[in-house]
Amino acid sequence: MDRQKMDPELKREIVGDQRNEITEYYVYRALAKRESDPRNREVLERIAEEERKHYDFWADYTGEKPPPKPWTIWKYVWIARLLGVTFAIKLMEKGEQSAQENYTEIARSIPEAARIAKDEDEHEAELTNMIDEERLQYIGSVVLGLNDALVELTGALAGFTLALQDARLIAVIGLITGVAAALSMAASEYLSTKSEPSDRRSPGKAAAYTGIAYIFTVFLLICPFILLQTPLLSLALTIGAALAVIFAFSYYVSVARGLSLRARFLEMAGLSLGVALVSFGIGYLLRRFTGVEA
């Protein structure tokens, strides 16, 4: 296609795609420089080079070489530092879905766009098999710590709220219960990992991931009871905090592992709220039939 005869709207779309391609080139290059695994680094560099070739290919049609988006490069590099390379590149690849749809439309006028769309499709599959990141190896330990803390402590705090009705007392008992449970869970994860010969994970690291996730959740859930004097309001905020943690972690896992966000969130939230509701009812019955008062 003669670029002088190119439809202005089509040219505008292609220039936008060019800018995305060169931006992703710099993101992949930056991530490759941070990658310690030689195989992972080589694949990231190769994909970066493909993005640059796509950019140059479209330049022949548009006659333009738009600059990258500095904010986007900075954003994904920091996401990789905070949440891992796997999460960052999966999140970026999710954004490429709209670009792939755009290439399908462009292919009606420029058939070569179909080849680029195919390259983009192959990126995600390659990246999925590429990364062997420590934080993903231990994600099962984190799930164990978070899930147990959310289910057990949310339920315990709900029961304490009805039985005791004293925010500070509930906070103290909840903290003791939570820390003891965190240590117990970490010890169990250590023994479980050590007893499994096929498990490549370090027992000490697995225990640490489980214990830290558990204790972090404990402090987050107990904070409302420490800061407020009203037990029922504190419980409501605790449940809100639990749902926020469940959503944040479910989103992370859904992106990094390519799983359904809705299914994972509903499963974890259902377990936590279900146990909390049952415990709340038990606390009510105990208070009513035993006459226990704080």
Molecular structure report:
- It is a single chain.
- With 294 residues, the protein is an all-alpha fold.
- It folds into 2 domains: 3-132; 135-290, no CATH class.
- The chain has helices at residues 8-34, 38-62, 70-83, 85-106, 113-130, 134-137, 139-164, 167-194, 203-227, 231-257, 261-290.
- It is elongated and about 85 Å long.
Characteristic terms for this protein:
elongated; 294 residues; 2 domains
Shape: elongated
| SS content category | mainly alpha
> What low-confidence regions span 5 or more consecutive residues with pLDDT below 50?
none
Q: Average pLDDT across residues?
A: 80
Number of strands: 0
The biggest sheet, with number of strands, parallel, antiparallel or mixed sense and barrel status, is: none
Architecture blueprint of SSEs:
Layout: H1 8-34, H2 38-62, H3 70-83, H4 85-106, H5 113-130, H6 134-137, H7 139-164, H8 167-194, H9 203-227, H10 231-257, H11 261-290
Please provide a brief summary of the model.
The protein is 84% helix and 0% strand.
